[in-house]
Design brief:
single chain; 651 residues; mainly alpha; Lysozyme; two-stranded antiparallel sheet; 63% helix; disordered N terminus; disordered C terminus
Length: 651
């Protein structure tokens, strides 16, 4: 399994983030565009290749197509950069209030921001419903700044993901600097984040604002060893770049970076030394090095990125330093501190100090939330995890309006064409208007159309009306029961994993090629097929449900055995490959509870994956066994030892 594999199985082959089948136009052409759906696919393909001529030809032939708004959108999309404001207004006037109109407004706002048409931007921005585009947010602040408004504080809160900036956020930083809303400290804060994330394009742009030659910036981030061969030169620029280079060097050799900082310690101020140790600490923490704890302690009150704030806590958890856990969470920005993860771990730190009432208050504040930390908090309050009382099933009378709903029917049409990106956009757009009962009815419509991922995701939105038969379905139960029983494998865990892997999309395929319910990579499928004696196996068989279940469960059983029966380790192995959790465990200095191991997995995707799989499995077990369960028991304890048995060839 690849650590970059899609968690929910919705990462179907994508182009430019729009769900394009790169060969859609070619396939349609070979098939002779035998129907309007073929023609629509060809239009869509032309649009995303900026092929205005063919887009116009296809659109002209689709005058009577059942989804005219998308015909008009893809026609316009084919020449978006050259589209006039009049064309944009015409489309929005015609389709206002629809999902695709909101999509076009997103496109238009980006164009208006690039062009600096701020009056029109300000008219349109409040009408942008989804409002999830970071560049548009940056342009919104830039528009305010151009009008002499103070936006520096908002900008500092927004500009914390260097890899997602784009032109809008670069322009915001540039303008705020030129107009004295951002100072040198702000620019160096951004530069340090660029260094942490190896975001060289951002660093080079910042370098220009700081009047630093490109070569020096590039050397600090891409060739840190060259810069560190000698001591730091004098001046803030030299010191800041040297400290960034220390962090970059620590990614490969934290001990050498620490020795270098120690050697030249006297040449830095106290605050610079703290920043240097913070740079080294973060990289050592991401490598799970035990020395990271000491580095964090030396970092003292250094300014930290959001990522660094969280990894300081994770290091303290892994090393059992509850005092540092508490102080580190206390010092987090409010936006992080309120996250359920840090509410839970702060509660644990308070409990370790004997402050039981304060801890209980924190656990109680999230114990009703249906996720990993809510479940753990419930157990801290002395309860186990059960299934909520069943709600009244939705009736045919409640489902009937869903069957007639134009937006949901449009979504179903897109799903039938395997256009999941468009289908999900339309589906979610309609959910915004619904009550919880209507959500359950829409989820039931999804079930009737064999869209189990939509059923799960739609039902997951409710807070009062809870239907766990929708949230935690058990399709292919006979095959699953037979296979797991023969292997002695926990069926609840397997279902929990499938729910996370593919959301029960039978033909799910990730961007790295993992396929089917259990998202098997081709090499893994071949390996397991050979191991279990599945003769004449061919790759296409991986999408057969029974074969996928057989291969996936056997592989899961292999990694479970290889990793000593730990579901936490085996779940990580299924996502990231067995070698990585072995290495992560080998870095432990003491036994840790499974929740701490999961929290300190260095891959963001795998960390979330393991927590979600085991949370799912706990609910499935409660459903199957009809009694409350313990997530803590399922997580178990992870012991720092090398493997004593296992298959070294396991992929």
């Amino acid at each position: 399994m690849s650590a970059k594999k899609s968690l929910a199985g919705l990462g179907l082959v994508m182009l430019a983030g729009f769900g394009i089948s790169p060969l859609a136009g070619a396939v349609a052409a070979k098939r002779g565009l035998i129907n309007d759906d073929d023609r629509f696919m060809a239009l869509r393909d032309a649009a995303f290749h900026d092929d205005t001529f063919n887009a116009e030809q296809h659109a002209a032939a689709l005058k009577n197509y059942e989804i005219p708004s998308y015909v008009d959108y893809y026609r316009l999309r084919s020449h978006l950069a050259k589209a006039t404001n009049a064309e944009m207004r015409e489309f929005l006037n015609k389709y206002e209030g629809t999902a695709i109109a909101d999509r076009l407004r997103n496109d238009w706002l980006l164009l208006l921001g690039r062009r600096g048409e701020w009056d029109l931007f300000d008219q349109q921005y409040p009408l942008f419903v989804v409002a999830d585009d970071n560049q548009v947010r940056c342009y919104s602040l830039l528009s305010k700044a151009v009008k002499q408004q103070k936006v520096a504080a908002e900008a500092r809160n927004l500009l914390n993901s260097p890899r997602d900036y784009g032109e809008g956020c670069y322009a915001l930083v540039t303008y705020l600097t030129a107009n004295n809303q951002f100072n040198q400290n702000d620019l160096w804060t951004q530069m340090r984040m660029a260094g942490e994330n190896a975001a060289l394009p951002l660093a080079q742009r910042l370098g220009k604002l700081l009047e630093i030659p490109d070569r020096q910036v590039t050397d600090a981030i891409d060739k840190p060893a060259l810069l560190l061969k000698k001591g730091p030169d004098v001046g803030r620029t030299a010191h800041e770049l040297y400290l960034i280079a220390l962090g970059r060097n620590a990614k490969n050799d934290h001990e050498q970076a620490a020795a270098t900082l120690t050697r030249y310690s006297s040449q830095f101020s106290e605050s610079e030394r703290a920043m240097g140790w913070a740079q080294i600490a973060l990289q050592a923490a991401l490598k799970l090095e035990p020395e990271a704890l000491g580095y964090w302690q030396k970092a003292s009150n250094a300014p930290l990125s959001l990522e660094a704030f969280q990894w300081r806590v994770r290091t303290a958890l892994r090393e059992g330093d509850w005092k540092l856990v508490k102080s580190s969470i206390d010092n987090m920005p409010a936006s992080l501190k309120s996250d359920p993860a840090w509410v839970y771990w702060l509660g644990r730190a308070l409990k370790a100090e004997g402050k039981n009432e304060e801890a209980r208050a924190l656990f109680t504040s999230i114990a009703d939330q249906l996720h990993f930390y809510g479940q753990l908090s419930l157990e801290e309050l002395g309860q186990k995890i059960g299934v909520p009382a069943a709600v009244k099933p939705v009736t045919p009378e409640e489902i009937a309006p869903m069957e007639k709903n134009a937006n949901l029917q449009r979504a179903l049409k897109f799903y039938a064409m395997n256009l999941r990106f468009e289908g999900t956009r339309e589906w979610n757009w309609e959910l915004r208007k619904m009550s919880e009962r209507q959500h359950l009815a829409a989820a039931e419509l999804a079930r009737q159309n064999n869209l189990l991922d939509r059923m799960v995701n739609t039902s997951d939105r409710t807070k009062g009306e809870l239907d766990f038969s929708q949230r935690y379905p058990t399709p292919f139960n006979d095959s699953m029961y037979k296979t797991t029983q023969s292997l002695g494998l926990d069926m609840a865990w397997v279902y929990g994993l499938i729910r996370q892997e593919s959301r029960f999309i039978m033909n799910a395929k990730s961007h790295v090629g993992a396929s089917g319910l259990m998202q098997l990579m081709p090499a893994t499928a071949r390996y397991v097929a050979k191991k279990i004696g599945l003769g004449n196996f061919v790759p296409a068989q991986v999408n057969d449900v029974d074969t996928n279940i057989a291969l996936g469960t056997n592989y899961l059983n292999m990694v479970l055995t290889d990793l000593g029966g730990s579901q936490a380790l085996a779940s990580a192995a299924y996502n990231a490959g067995p070698g990585r959790p072995r290495a992560w465990r080998a870095k432990l200095t003491r036994p840790v509870e499974g929740a701490i191991f999961a929290e300190t997995i260095p891959f963001n995707e795998t960390r979330g994956y393991v927590k979600n799989v085991l949370s799912n499995a706990t609910y499935y077990a409660a459903l199957f066994e009809k009694k409350p369960q313990s997530l803590k028991t399922r997580l178990g304890t992870v012991i720092p030892k090398g493997m004593t048995a296992g298959d070294p060839d396991l992929p």
